[in-house]
Amino acid sequence: MKTILSGLKPTGEMTIGNYIGAMKHWPLTQGKGNKTIFFVPNAHALTARQDPKEIRKRTLDLAAWLLTVGIDPKESTILIQSMVSAHSELFWILDNYVTMGELNRMTQFKDKSKKLGPEGQLVGLYSYPVLMAADILLYDSNEVPVGEDQIQHVELTRDIANRFNKLYGDTFVLPKATVPKYGARIMSLDEPSVKMSKSDHPDSYIALGEDKDSVIKKFKRAVTDSDSVVSYDKAAKPAISNLIEIYIGFTDKSIEEVEVLYEGKRYGEFKQDLGIIVSDKLAELQHKFEDYRADEASLIEILEQGSAKARQIADKKIIEVKSKIGLL
Ligand code: AQP
Questions:
Q1: CA geometry: angle 80, 58, 65, nearest 5 deg
Q2: Looking at domain 209-290, which of 1.10.240.10, 3.40.1360.10, 1.10.3720.10, 3.40.50.1110 is its CATH number?
Q3: How confident is the model at residue 117 (pLDDT cuts 50, 70, 90)?
Q4: 305 CA to middle of ligand 1, Å?
């Protein structure tokens, strides 16, 4: 039996990047004898200033998105990070098993601290990969299905776990990141050299809650490459290749099928079709989302039950860790 764990940080509206790179794959891991755990790492959102009302709302939004994409609370444990205090407890312990040199190498920190200015230099932003390590290691996770940007953090988690195991004997399972073949790094619509991020400016991304007109307009305006052939070549044609990855992320067609479909056609036609495909799928998802989100009491009950189940696993692991390092 494998334990599979992943999460979504409530720092903004979910984007199609989060969907294609991560969320849409998660329901497929359910059943098959796997133990599946999905969570909202809301404490991670504190690495940038948040409006308290907004972070609460977004946390519940993300829980509703998890249900919307097909995470079934009967099959999976759905939890909120702040409802399981063992995450913060293990974080502090693990902070002492990682070096500043290792954290200095984290590319997410380098990118984000540049973007966010002086407040981006908060210690939390620097050490959040260690909290992520705690999130993963508490549950003996074997696999962490993520987008490409998170691979480095899962690798750091392995290093920390390995170091701890060598010192104190087998304690943590060594996790591995799993990423989709295509769509693991969806790029910004107006700057194809930069990853699409929900905390970036709105023209750069498409949110899962966005309406049809806006989606179609954004794809129309999306940057393209200098020629006009709809073909996939990430190095030579990063902009159209990114749009093709979005297309296949929403249709499950292969690259070859898309190239054949648009042979002899221009970017304009491709972008128009893409806008319709994406907005139709989003409308379907939004409809489900609204149903789940409207019943806040049931949503909170699912989260309380999931978090209570998670606490049983996480508390056991914390007791084991504390006893191994001599903390009463
Ligand atoms: N552009 C992307 N392409 C593919 N996958 C992506 N993911 C994020 N952006 C892309 C994957 O989505 C999952 C949830 O990510 P997260 O919200 O927890 O944190 P993040 O990776 O920091 O995502 P953002 O959108 O870039 O958030 P902000 O702007 O707050 O930093 C992860 O598996 C992630 O890899």
A1: 75
A2: 1.10.240.10
A3: low
A4: 26
Catalytic residue among 198, 218, 281, 317: 198
Residue identifier of the C-alpha nearest atom 26 of ligand 1: 197
With the most atoms of ligand 1 within 8 angstroms of its CB, the residue from 66, 150, 187 to mutate is 150
Name the residue ranges covered by the structural domains of the chain.
Answer: 2-184+296-325, 209-290
Q: Does ligand 1 come within 6 angstroms of the Cβ of 197?
A: yes
253 as an active site residue: the answer is no
List, for residues 48-74, the tens digit of each pLDDT value.
888 999 999 999 999 999 999 999 999
- At residue 123's C-alpha, the angle toward residues 122 and 126, to 5°, is 100
Active site residue 112: yes
Give yes or no for residue 150 CB within 6 A of ligand 1.
yes
What is the share, in percent, of the chain residues with pLDDT greater than 90? 89
Query: Does the Cβ of 22 fall within 6 Å of ligand 1?
Result: yes
Task: Give pLDDT, residue 111.
Answer: 79
Q: Indicate the helix (H) or strand (E) that contains 263.
A: none
Which residue's CA is the nearest one to ligand 1's atom 7? 18
Distance between CA 17 and CA 209 in Å, rounded? 13
Angle, helices 267-294 vs 296-325, to 10°: value is 90
- Specify the pTM: 0.95
Distance of CA 236 to the CA centre of its chain: 27
Indicate the CATH number for domain 2-184+296-325: 3.40.50.620
